[in-house]
Every structure is written in structure tokens, then in C-alpha cells.
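Good morning,

Both structures are done.
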Amino acid sequence: YWSNHYQLGVACLRLGRNNEALAEFQKVVDLNPSHASTYNNIGAIYERESRFDESIRMFQKAIQLQPYAGAYSNLGTEYFFLGRYQDAIPMFEKALELSPNDEVAAGNLGDAYRQAGQTEKARAMYQRAIELAFKALEVNPQNASALASVGRYYAKDGDTAKGAEYVARARAVNSADNELMYDEAVVDALAGHPEQALTALEAALASGYSLEEARRDPDLKSVRALPNFEAASKKAADEAAQRH
């Protein structure tokens, strides 16, 4: 039953057991070669392993089989972190078209516009992402992910003080979430505080956040320029791997 292999692969992927996940997904490909999500997940594994050309092919295969928002978003993200912003933009546009109420899709498109120098389009997307995140906060004012999203988009739109305020609120709700730690690092970097950002980033990496993303994120350029970035970040990532 291919679905059992798929679910086992998803479980292994969430636990960071990439080799086991890949083996299960390859069994799914053998049994059900038209299952789009399997190729999307294989692409995610290749991305984790810095096998970028292979991950792009897998995301493209997923889109070919079933053009859904998640696959477009993943392909756009891969292009984005490779610095291919003009290629990322149409992928994120399509993801937002298919999922118009997704604040992450709007924020990703804002990021691509900003890095491509399309400032006004970027600001419009960040405002849309903020509005969508606020809708989530109307349902649950203590939604840490939504609070951090609001803060991240405010900071990327130039209001780093408000960005820091919302990320701090998110961290107060959930101090152990490494994604929120990473958001704090990004906001600190955008505010011109790279040393402070590195401290937050070290905490995120020590809790298992992706070092590869930190090395590729354009918003952390000032942090990567610090002389102690590589040693400090690698030490934190190694500690996280040992605990895992």
C-alpha cells in the first residue's frame, strides 16, 4: 500500500530522518508514480541536503502532476534562496493565486519583489500579508506564529520597531519555538543590530533550525559578515545535531 509508505515518509521527514524518508518516498514513486506530493517531499529532502538542481526538478515534477500552491511555493522558495528572484516571483504569484488567503504566500511574494527591487509591489504584498495575519489574530490573539509574521512583515516593510514589538510578543507566548527565534534574528538584522541578531540566530540553530537557510537568507547578510558568524553558527547547529 503506497499510502502507508507515504505516511511513514512524512513522519520521518518531520523528524529530520532524511535518508529513511527518502527511501519511503522512493517506494511510493515505484507504486504510484503520479502522486504529486511525494515528489514535493523528495524535493524538500534534496533542498535540506543542498542538492538544489535535483530539488528544483522534483518541485517541477510535482507541479506538472498537480499544480497546487504548496509546490509552487516550494519551487519559488528554492529560486529565492538561490538568488533567482525573477524566477521566484511567478512561482509565488501562482501560489498566492491558488491560495489567496495565505499570509505566507503573500509574504513570500513580498520578499521576492523586495529583493528584485520592486519596492512598491513589495510594500503592497507586505501590507496584504499583515492584514491576513491580523485575521488569524482575531480568532486567537495569542497565535505566536501570526504575531511573529506581523512583526516580520512590518520589519521588512521598514518599521523595525513595530517588527521587534510583535516578535517579542510572539516569543513571550512561546519561547521554545526555533522559528520565532529565527524571526527575531531577522528583525534584529533588519534593524541594524547584527551582533544581537547572531545571538538570536545561535539560539535558533541550537534548537534545530536550518543552518543552510541562515547561510542563504539575504536578510542575514550583515550577520554573515561578522567574523564569528561561521564558528558560532556551526557550533550551535552541531550541538543541536548531537542532541537529536
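Second structure follows.
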Amino acid sequence: LFEQTPVGVYTYDKNLIIMHTNERHAEIMQSSKEKIIGLDIRGLADKSFNDIHERAVRGESASREGFYRSTTGNIPLYIMVSAAPLRDASGRIIGGMSVVEDMTERKRAEIAFLQSRQRYENLVNTVDGIVWEAEPESFRFTFVSKQVERIFGYTTEEWLENHKFWTEKLHPEDRERVVNYCRTSTESLKDHVIEYRMIAADGRVVWMRDIVSVEVEDGVAVGLKGIMIDITDLKKPRPFYSKAL
């Protein structure tokens, strides 16, 4: 079991000297068993995980995840280490045992996703309109760009924390019409455009043109994306000029 387990396993004595390690642990560290066995944990170049090993030989179980640089392999990793006391048949602590999981690729993927998301948000926040994403059944917004603050005076946090924010801020005379139209269009899996009024934070009435795209997977609406454009100026009555004959 020690050798065949898919995670790295190593044991150490009460002085934190590594006594045994399996092949998987050596692979994760891109090193060898010969280089790892006999190492003093307290003397490792990266000491960020030392605390949980010290706690293990004192009788406490502990775990930690984070970036780590291998002493013998000298490579950057992101790992999860769980440490526990190692006891003999009488229950006396004789050292510790740790299990290490390599999470480097998953962490890289998470970082890449967050960076991509940040670039997306930076881009949409420059658009002269409110870019948004929402759930198709509840119309709960999951993303809204910073333009809501300029156009309506609400913060993005206010908008996202209240699941009914959009429907509540619709003009009372437009609310039923807009919600019914959007629900019918979404259920029909049809992209749609609709104009309506909303109430700003200072009480102003703001006219919006909402251009909505319905995301469909296997014949089911799984998301809504759109952009709201402020058309208040276009709705203002224009002065009528007559030309004297």
C-alpha cells in the first residue's frame, strides 16, 4: 500500500528526519528516494510546511496547501500535505507520517481562469453599456459590469447580492410586461431585444435597451448574457419646429 498508493507518503522520526518515502513522493518532488531519505525536515530550503510536521510529532494532525519549492528537485509546486502522528503498538508517538498530493496543474488552471476572467472584466468594464450575465430561470444576475455605478448609481455588490434586484428596480409600469416577455423568449430559446424603464438610485427614470443572448445546451437554456444601453436621451421629446410659409 505504501508503494502503490497514488499519493506521496513519507514517514519521519521524532527529530523530523525522513525515514521512509514512496516512489510517488519522489516523483512529485522530481527527485529520488535516495535523495529524500535522511533529510532533516527542519533544514529544508522551503520551510512553509515545517509547522504541520512539528505538530504531528507532538500528537496533532494538521494539513496545509500552498506553493512549495522542492529542496532536492528545485522546482515550484503547489501541494496539499496532511500530517499525522505515527505511533507504535502501545500508542507511543514515534514520529509522524505525511501524505502529499500534487495540485500544481489544477492550481495553474485556476490561475489561468482567474487571469482570463480578469481580462474579460477589464474589457467589458470599458464598454459604454452594462454587460451582464444571469441565470435563465430566476433572472438572478451572476455578473454585472461597473457601468451600473455610472448609469444607475448602484454598486455592483448591491446588484449581485440581491437576487431580485433587477426586477425590483424595473419601473412599476413596465415590470410585468418585461418579465413576461423575457421569460417567454428565454423558454423559447430566442435571443431578444427589449426596451424598458428602470429606477436609478437617485430616483431618476432611465430608459434602457436590453440586447439579450440565450445560451443553449442540449435544447435547454443554461444562461443569459446581454448588454444594457442607456437610451434615455433618445426617448426625450424633440422640439417641433415649423417653418413659416
